[in-house]
């Protein structure tokens, strides 16, 4: 089948494309590099011709609830409208575990995105996953006070982006499910430990203090509101195993 992947060059999207191709499907990457702008809808109609299913992994880098909400409502709204015009039978959204318990900052935008999917008129599946192992590197790069890197405290259960990509591809090939079972990594980790381990693995030798960052989202993460609950599907690769694979 022909599967379009919004954000198909990203951390998870690239794994979705790889998994779909390995399963014998024809993946179509939706990105600015392929002439598609989700925020305006430009190029979507042409890109979705003959598409059977759409997987939305597109993302925006922000901590602002307003910025995230505007982006996801526009981008996913345009995607769903174009999918409906094209007669797409199934749309799959990648979301985040616990956002209804922790609807703050960026996570508020993801919750708004889910509502767009639910009301969009195209049969849908939503997969909520926990943070990816790559989250440690993203936090290391962004959490800084001047030149000093800091390690935010938090309780997380990270999952391999490759496993998330494979799960999304498999869901898209099946019938719409509504809310699918959540997906998480095999064990709980401390976010500050992950950030420090990533820093050491990538050659950073400086002091990285553990800190409790302000904001509703980070308070929720420290409280464990993003941890998986009963019925969650657990992946296999641990953060330590992922870290060992880094070049």
The H-and-E topology, N to C, reads as EHEHEHEHEHEEEEHEEEHEHEH
Our measurement of the CA-to-CA distance between the termini, rounded to an integer number of angstroms, reads: 34 Å
Give the CATH level 1 class.
Alpha Beta
Shape, principal axes of CA atoms: globular
Mean pLDDT: 97
CATH topology: Rossmann fold
Number of helices: 9
- Going by CATH, the architecture would be 3-Layer(aba) Sandwich
Strands of the widest sheet, in order across it, are: 2-1-3-4-5-10
DSSP strand tally? 14
Q: Could you estimate the helical fraction of the residues in percent?
A: 25-40%
Please tell me the total number of domains: 1
**Poorly predicted runs:** none
Largest sheet: 6 strands, parallel
Rg estimate, integer Å: 18 Å
Q: Which structural class do you get from the secondary structure elements?
A: alpha/beta
> What is the CATH superfamily?
NAD(P)-binding Rossmann-like Domain
Strand content: 15-25%
Description:
With 247 residues, the chain is of the alpha/beta class. The protein has a single domain (2-245), classed as NAD(P)-binding Rossmann-like Domain (Rossmann fold, 3-Layer(aba) Sandwich), CATH 3.40.50.720. It is 38% helix and 18% strand. The chain contains 9 helices and 14 strands. It has helices at residues 13-22, 44-47, 65-86, 106-118, 135-142, 161-172, 191-201, 216-222, 239-245; strands at residues 2-6, 26-30, 53-56, 90-96, 124-129, 144-145, 148-149, 151-152, 155-156, 178-179, 183-184, 189-190, 210-211, 233-234. The strands form 5 sheets. Strands 2-1-3-4-5-10 form a 6-stranded parallel beta sheet, with helices on both faces. Helix 3 links the parallel strand 3 (53-56) and strand 4 (90-96). Helix 3 packs parallel to helix 4 (106-118) and helix 5 crosses helix 7. The model has no long low-confidence stretch (mean pLDDT 97).
């Amino acid at each position: 089948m022909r599967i379009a992947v919004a954000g198909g060059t990203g951390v998870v999207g690239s794994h979705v494309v790889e998994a779909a191709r390995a399963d014998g499907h024809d993946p179509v990457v939706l990105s600015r590099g392929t002439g598609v702008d989700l925020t305006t809808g430009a190029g979507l109609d042409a890109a979705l011709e003959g598409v059977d299913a759409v997987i939305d992994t597109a993302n925006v880098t922000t901590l602002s609830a307003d910025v995230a909400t505007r982006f996801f409502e526009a981008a996913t709204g345009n995607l769903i409208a174009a999918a409906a015009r094209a007669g797409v039978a199934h749309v799959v959204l990648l979301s985040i575990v616990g956002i209804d318990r922790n609807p703050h900052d960026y996570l508020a935008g993801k919750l708004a995105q889910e509502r767009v999917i639910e009301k969009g008129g195209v049969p849908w599946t939503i997969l909520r996953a926990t943070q990816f192992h790559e989250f440690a590197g993203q936090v290391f790069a962004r959490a800084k006070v001047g030149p000093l890197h800091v390690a935010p405290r938090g309780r997380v259960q990270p999952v391999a982006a490759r496993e998330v990509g494979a799960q999304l591809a498999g869901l898209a090939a099946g019938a719409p499910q509504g809310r699918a079972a959540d997906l998480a990594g095999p064990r709980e980790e401390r976010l500050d430990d992950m950030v420090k381990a990533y820093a050491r693995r990538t050659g950073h030798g400086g002091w990285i203090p553990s800190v409790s960052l302000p904001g509703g989202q980070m308070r929720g993460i420290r409280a464990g509101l993003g941890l998986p609950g009963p019925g969650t599907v657990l992946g296999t690769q641990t953060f330590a195993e992922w870290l060992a694979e880094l070049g």
